[in-house]
Structures are given as structure tokens and as C-alpha cells.
Amino acid sequence: MKYIIYQDQLTEGMPHSVVQEKAMAMLGDADATVQYAREHFNDLYIEVYAGTMEDCPIKEALASLHRILNVNQPEDFHARSLSSGDVVYLEGDTVSAFHVVTAWGFNLLPIVRNKLEKPIHDGTTLVAVTLNEPKYPGIRISQHKQDGTEEYMCFVEFNTEKPAGMQLYVGAYAHNIDEPAYYECFNTPALPSPNN
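RE: above sequence
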């Protein structure tokens, strides 16, 4: 069974609202912990450790990881101890799921793996990321350059504020321009060809 540990990375200048959410997640409210991890998994969490273990029931695997990463930490484990708000991904023959650590144990985290990376010939990497924003869920594609910079390219979003049937939008970025250009709704009927 494969496992991956993710931890959030709060930095200076983080919005106060996010810090408050983190505080609530740490106070023992399992629902708040799940909500925090779900809403911020794509923008705050990074992979800090990964490994493999023998296949076993999920509860047993999670308990074993909690014990190993809090008591008998491996020499190559340099992250903080597994604690409330941290996320564990398990992948085995019969399981593929995320779980979040709460003050009372582990809760299933209803998210999907959020990133695909594809290196291309010029040394850059194309990255597709799911956006789990409540009002505008979608997918964004960007390019990560060899110098470490990232440049957004395009996205598809589902706009919950638009009328039913007209909620899917596509947008594209131009080089060195921050604001995207939106196209008509993806479901907009095509205009007749001038030749018809």
C-alpha cells in the first residue's frame, strides 16, 4: 500500500480569515477540520513524505502511520509530527482515498487527486490542477518553467451564479497579462455559418 502525507504551509501575510479557519480546525471540531482541509488542499497543502507499507485494513493503516510519524519517526522524515489538519492519502489494491487527521482520529476527506504534470520537450512542465472553490469549481492549466516560475494558460470553470445550462465557461490568459479573457458560455448555441 502506498501512502502520501500532506501538510498545510501557512506563511506570513496569509489572510486573517485563513488563520482563523486553521485555528478552528485545530480546536477539536472535526467538521471544521474537514472543511478547512477540503477548501485549502489545492492552495496550501504540499506533499511532505511518502512511502509504502503492507496492505491492511484502512483503520489499521492509518493508526500505524499515526504511530510511526508521531513516535517512531523514520530518519528521513523531516516534517512536523502528524497532527490535526494533516492529510493522508492511501492507495492499495482495494482503496484509493484521502483522510484528514482530526482531534478524534481520521475522517474521510471528499476530494480527488488534484494535479497532473506533463514535462514537455523545451524543459517546461504543463500542470493541470483542479480548483475546489465552492462557487467556481474547475480545472486550470499552467506551465512551470525551468527557472521555477509559473504562468497560467487557460481554465474551465463551472459558474454556480449563472442560469442552469449556461454555467460552463472557458477562459485563457495572454503572456504577461494577469486578467483572463472569457469566451462565451461553452453551451451557447453556435451561430450559423455565413456560407449557409
